[in-house]
Amino acid sequence: MKDYKALLTTDSDYHIFNRAVGGEKIFAIPENYSYFLLLFEKYIVPLADVFCYCLLPNHFHFFIRTKDGQTLGEEMKRLDYKHADSEAQNPAFILQQFSNFFNAYTKALNKQQHRKGKLFMEPFNRRCVTTPEYHIKLIHYIHANPVHHGFCKSVDQLVV
C-alpha cells in the first residue's frame, strides 16, 4: 500500500503533491504562480532543498530533500518555535511550516478572488523517495506532468 502521508524527517527525500478541492484552480492568474513560489521560498526553502517542481493550474508537485537536524534546529530557533530545543519535534515543525505555507497562499488567493474556504485537499500528499531508481522516475514524472495533462505537447515546450 502506498504511503501518501509519510512522516517528514530530516535528511530525507520526498515527493510532495496536492491539488485544489473540487477541481478548482490553485493559480487563477499568472502572478499567482510567482507568489506561490515566493511563499514556498519563505516557508519551505529554509527546511529543504528542491530537486525539481511542477506547478499546474489545479495541482503541483515538488521533489525535495529535507535538511539536517542542526539546520532545522537553527530555523526553529530563528522562528521562535515552541519546541526549538527538541530534535524529536523536527517532523512536527516541518509539517507546521507546510501548513503555514498553504494557509498563507490560500488566504491571499481567497482575498484576491473573493472566495472563501479551503483551497487544497488536506492533508497534502507526500511520499518518501528511497531509491535511486525512484529518484530518476520521479524527476521524469514531474517534468513530464504538463505533457501528461495536455498543457504542452513535449517536455521541451515547458516554460522554466
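The record above closes out task 2.4. Task 2.5 opens with a second protein, given below.
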Amino acid sequence: MKATFIINQLTFELDAEGARELFQQVAQIQEIFEAETSCGCCQSDDIRYSYRVSGDFQFYELACRKCAAQFRFGQKKGTLELFPKRKDESGNVLPNGGWSKWEPRHDGDSRPVSQAAWRPSDAPSKLIPNFLDWDTAERSNQWGKPIRVDGTLFHIPQGKRAYERAPEFAQVK
C-alpha cells in the first residue's frame, strides 16, 4: 500500500503493508510536523524547523521568527524517533505549550525563560556570537538571535525576515 501525504508544503511518500502500518506512519509524521502551527509565546505563525548541534548533542526544534522562542522535540532512547516536548523532566506541563525563550543572565544561568523580553544590552558580549563576515553568519544556526558581524550587533525586528543593525544603545563592546 502506497500513499502520498502532504503537510505544510512537505510531501511524504509512504509505503506500508496494510492500513494499520500506514496509519502508524501518518500518526508519527503528524506528531512531529503538525505539532505546532504557531508560536506559544507570541502566537505568530511565522515558525520554521531548526536543527543544531552543540558538542555531542543534537537539537531538533521549531523556532519563531518573530520573537525567537523555541519549541523542542525530545528523542526516544534507542530509536531515531522524535516527540514534542510538552513536559519537563519531572513530568510537569511546560508553560506556553512547551515554547520558551533562551535568555542569557548575568549570573551565568542559561535555563530557558518563558516570558521575559530580552534586551541585547543585558547580555555580556561573549554570549553573542561574532562573525567575521555575512557568509559565515548565514551558515550558522543563529537565525532569530542577536549576532555580531565584524563587531556590529544585529537583530531581527518583529515581523521581518532579515537582520537589521541594532540601535546604538544596544551596542555592547
